Fold each of these.
Amino acid sequence: MFRYCPACASERICFKQNRVFRCPDCDFTYYHNTAAATACIVRTNTGLLFLVRNRDPEKGKLDLPGGFIDSGEGAMDGLRREFMEELGFDIKAEELRLFASFPNIYPYKNISYNTCDLFFYLDAPDLTEKDLQLEEAEISGVHFINPKDLDIERIAFESVKKAVRVFLEMIY
């Protein structure tokens, strides 16, 4: 990630324990900490809501609504913001239920970000595609998939695959 120390430009900066950059020349220290992210399984009368990713990584694969939590946000606030940004759909925090969390690696522009993904579910029985306004830069489409017709391998990330499996075992 760093070829030169951002503080003193030394080439001797090193990355230790897959989490900390240290410069022996000026004692610059940068912790490459785990980022927090959220995702939500939305259960409707017609199936589970999946988004189709419109950008890398994993463009064209299925994903759940959600994303990274911004500084100063709690998990549910971040998830609500992501729903509004991605789908133009407002959800209430009290309707969300946390059911799983898994580590993940999110590769982006040649950097692998370690994430802690928090998975929620929401029952929205009457939700249809007409209720959604897609952020087309991020999402190319939506599918409401009956769980018995779901091909887990079409899902973008390993943590999301695990969460969907856990949810299906828990609910169905």
Amino acid sequence: MDNINLFIEKITTLELNTFTRVLISILIIILFFIARPLLSYILIKVFKIRDSNSEKIKKSAFYKPLKIFFAILGIYLAILFLGVNEKFLDIVNKAFSISIILLITYVISNALKPDSIFLKPFFKRTTLNSDPKIIKLITTCLRAIIFCIAGVIVISELGYDINGLIAGLGLSGLTIALAAQDTAKNLFGGLVILLDKPFALGEWIETQNYEGIVEEITFRSTRIRTWDDSVATIPNSEIVNSSVVNWTKMNLRRVKINLILEFKTKLKQVCDFTNDVQVLLNEYDIEKDSIIVKFSDIEDSGYKVYISFKTKIKKYSDYMELKENINYKIMQLLEKNKIDLAYPSQTIYVKK
């Protein structure tokens, strides 16, 4: 800035009338407006911001801001050449400085977009590349910080007391923070969900109060499509502070069946039935090592037979179909072995 002012000061000392100065100032503006595409192109090519392909250079994030910069510079030099008074010159200098600050902020903001050529290589080297929501959150926060810094610099450039402003904002910020505690908790909860990834879109989860398929995850809440086809919107803070069961991530489904046989059932019938069930389960596509068929307990109302196995079937409808088929077969085996199931009952003996 000082070098430019020194150069202009030397030119303005030349003995020129007002008409000539105005004419030269207009020519300076026209010259910069005509030359700005070429100057921007040469500058990007010299510093190798993009490769030598002219189309790619024109699509560069720096090409448009550089054109704006040269246009502003031309207008600034033209005004300086006019030899205006000091009061107006101070206003022009401040306007030029603020314009440059805003232009630099615009360039940095563009460079911090998710699809930026500067950030893409960085995200590709991390696990964040697989989650666009996290990338968007990070870049949004970075751009917000840049805008805040630019705002503080502009306010300082305008001559305002930054310390007093920060103190005032501190009190206002404290009031807002107290009023927005729940919102802040939900935003933090959303960040935790996106980073920790306890579940993803389309997965079947169960929370303390809801169960269903995850339809949407935002920074404030998570939406679940429940089994009765309603949509539950749960605040992220509630999900983070409670346990979540992700049924989609289970490797095997476990099936448990408890049968109570009547006391009149003979021991041989119980033994034959358990053996038949064991053979039956081996015919299905289930984990053979997980099959358990045992005469486990003697209950108040009869003999308890415990049946358990695991299957790789994850789809709920297929899982229920498997259970139904096995239940039908077990009922057939009960009929085959002439065994009746017991129901809760008590026998009372009266002593004469």
